[in-house]
Amino acid sequence: MPTLATTVDGLRMPNPFVIGSGPPGTNLSVINRAFREGWGAVIAKTVSLDSSKVVNVSPRYAKLHSTDGKEVIGWENIELISDRPFSIWLDEFKRCKDAHPSGVLIASIMEEYRKDSWVEIVERCQDAGVDAFELNFSCPHGLPERKMGAAMGQDPDVLEEVSGWVMGAAKRPVWAKMTPNITHIEDPSRAALRAGCNGLSAINTIRSVMGVNLDTLRPEPSVEGWTTPGGYSSRAVKPIALRMVMEISTLIRKEFPGRSLSGLGGIESGEDAAQFILLGADTVQVCTGVMKFGYECVRPMCDELLAFMAKHGFETLADFKGKSLDYFTTHADLVRRQAERKAAQKAAPKKVVASDAEWSGDEFVKQSDALSRQ
Ligand SMILES: Cc1cc2nc3c(=O)[nH]c(=O)nc-3n(C[C@H](O)[C@H](O)[C@H](O)COP(=O)(O)O)c2cc1C
Fold it and tell me: Which of 96, 125, 139, 287 is flagged as catalytic?
């Protein structure tokens, strides 16, 4: 019987499914609910020392629906970090650890570009008993105006310096959460790992504009008729998240073996989780998926991941972590491999090659090539 239990950076989890920072971890009562439902760990909503500077607006979500209107496939938010007082959060962290001593509670923290502030927030959260930290270097909206969030995450030098401050104060594992709003995700990733962070999380939301209302001509979400670009999440972002997870895993393998990676972006099923793990993730986070399907979605996700493992004879997550990374290569190498296979096929024309038979797109390409020659 395969097991989902895993230990990452010394954090012992019953399964790799982690609540991603956001509304599903927005106060003690919902965090407790997540532990009761069996989540492997919970990352609370991002906190800062002075919540009075955080002012949210409404509405702050806009959704992209499938053509039949039945499914949400993309989700934009212009929500800021937590607007609840830090003192209340500290009390809730303590009470959460009292109620769930073996539950892995991770504080997501964000501060301005000041060493004292970062050291203070780390020390006060760890005194309250949190098990680990996630550094929010990645919120794409609102906070960058105060040089926080993605504004830090997009500047590898600043990110490395701030990560260094945190590592000097932290007595618990630290993950740095990366923004996808950057050309090369390896650059900030390398900076955080060089500063000593135990691991990375990727990705935060993708800067986006959901759409424009064709009756009012106002972009959405519309706040008093106005908007600001937000962060895109949910199923639609999974291919981009997978690509970035692949790139970070490759970097970790080459330059920082042993560091961890928590993958997220559009995960809604055990099969989604399996794909992130196959590309090198140690744990997987779910944020929008919990808002769409409820905390109980962790149970089918665990069952689906176990079924995938049983099908392939994998007993532990380590048995397949990063296994699909080996199949990435350059385009030139794809050309070479295909030419070799075609040459071999010519030499033995009766042999049907599975990849040809299975790839229906092949026929489409042949036909369009023929048309363009006419
Ligand atoms: C409404 C909303 C609020 C969020 N708030 C935070 C936050 O406070 N801190 C943070 O690090 N990420 C935040 N995120 C980003 C998510 O943690 C996650 O990185 C992103 O949504 C992609 O994963 P998903 O598709 O599973 O949601 C938020 C996402 C949403 C949708």
Answer: 139
